[in-house]
Amino acid sequence: MLYSGIDLHRRLIVICTINSEGAVVARAKIETDQDTVVTYFRQWTEPHHGVVECTSNWYWLCDLLRSLGIVVVLAHAKYLKAISYAKVKTDAIDAHTLAQLLRMGFVPEAHQLPPEYRAMRDLLRQRMVMEHERTNIMMRITSNVW
């Protein structure tokens, strides 16, 4: 069994893959390109699990990894204290820590919304932000005494 910790950014992905004993099998810093990700994960035939933090752009990566037969865990960033409290914080260390936590079963999971509901959730979130901004503007207008 292989476990991959994935630190996802807009342009780069840092991946650390470990085996069942916790030894590092591979490390990579690749571009956020689907073909490059597929090439990285296709080099193994063993069963594979992956973990990625819940950020704004996780949809495509989780969907791609699932299509490759990789079990993907979405880590809840707020509760993932092992990374946020690390003294030395780099992308490579974060990816390695994620992989180790996944291997040991200590990843706090976030809910993965099915693809058919994602567009509606994103729309409602944007509406909520705009309503909040509207309320702030109205409060500023009404609080000024002329």
Could you please describe the fold and organization of this structure?
The protein is α/β, with parallel strands linked by helices. The protein has two domains: 2-111, Nucleotidyltransferase, domain 5 (2-Layer Sandwich), CATH 3.30.420.140; 113-146. Helix content is 44%, strand content 23%. The protein is built from five helices and five strands, in the order E-E-E-H-E-H-E-H-H-H. It has helices spanning 34-41, 59-67, 81-84, 91-104, 115-143, and strands spanning 2-8, 12-18, 24-31, 48-53, 71-75. It is elongated and about 65 Å long. The chain starts with a strand and ends with a helix.
CATH class bucket of the largest domain: Alpha Beta
SS summary, helix count: 5
The share of residues in extended strands comes to 15-25%
Rg over CA atoms:
19 Å
Strand order of the largest sheet: 3-2-1-4-5
How many domains, as an integer?
A: 2
Integer average pLDDT: 90
Q: Which shape, going by the Cα principal axes?
A: elongated
H/E element string? EEEHEHEHHH
Strand tally is 5
> How widely separated are the two ends?
70 Å
